[in-house]
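S., here's the first fold you wanted:
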Amino acid sequence: MATAIVPAHNESSVIRRCLDSLISQESLDTIIVACNGCSDDTVAIVRSEYPSVICLDIDKPSKVNALNEAEKHINSWPVFYIDADIAISDGAVKCISDGMQENNLLLAAPEPVIDTSKSPWLVRRFYDAWLRLPYIRQGVIATCTFVISEEGRKRFGEFPDVIADDGYVRSHFYDHELGNIAGAQVFVSAPRTVKSLIKIKTRARLGNVELKARNLGYDKPEPDYGSILPSLLFSRHWLSAIVYIGFVAIFRGRAKQQFKNLDNYQWEVDHTSR
């Protein structure tokens, strides 16, 4: 049996979709929604419509604090840490749990399925290239969810106050200890504007810069873009690759500037996909 933790900050517009995908999952013993700093009716929705779910109402608006509070209620493993604005496929919990055991994985995730049907052309081209990168398909990256075994959770203590909680977790595992599980999917809605894409991907880049600067996790090299991108540039996906490279330059530049004033950083959120 497994446990699912869903941190939620003002997620009333999407929380039902997430919980509906979890509530009937085989092998899922406990669902914990860690509402944090909510000023909408997220708490009311969870408590009235999903009585079997443990709903925490935490005053402090902090995702990592919400994770730490929710972990006090864990009673089964592995644990699925799931963002409130996504949904997972039927049977994903059992598929991932079994896959982790069969492949001796300590950290896992479902395969990402990005819905770009309502996104502009540039955003669609970015994700066309992004999803083709090997380390995205295999490395528990940007899936809005991660799954940790009981043994794997011993790698670190409480979640620290960082921007990239998923990056922090991933940095404690070597490549052979983690992987995406085939047959399990996570459904993610892509940003519907270029501006929103730049916001969330800059935040992801900034989170990785912060982790490296604070020397958190294992010292592992970044993906070798020099060997990965040429294969896309010299394929029928060359246009997507050019768009991707352009966006990455923007993400890196913005993250570099934001890191200089990290103490005053304002969390950038994509509201368009909700």
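And the second, which I think is the more interesting of the pair:
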Amino acid sequence: METYSLLREFADSWMLLLLFCIFVGMAFWVFRPGSRKLHQDTANIPFRNDDRPAPNQEASK
């Protein structure tokens, strides 16, 4: 059996199963019950130190 055919059969069967399991595992990890607070905290990082609006650029000229 040539190398391409062997790798093709492997990719079509076991690798597909492995990648599907990794996808399901990652989806479970992201949507697990305790991760909501962590994701909300990470999503709000750009707004943490936003005490006042940015200065008007036209007024400073």
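Why I say that: The two ends are 74 Å apart (CA to CA). The CA atoms of residues 30 and 36 lie 9 Å apart.

Talk tomorrow,
H.
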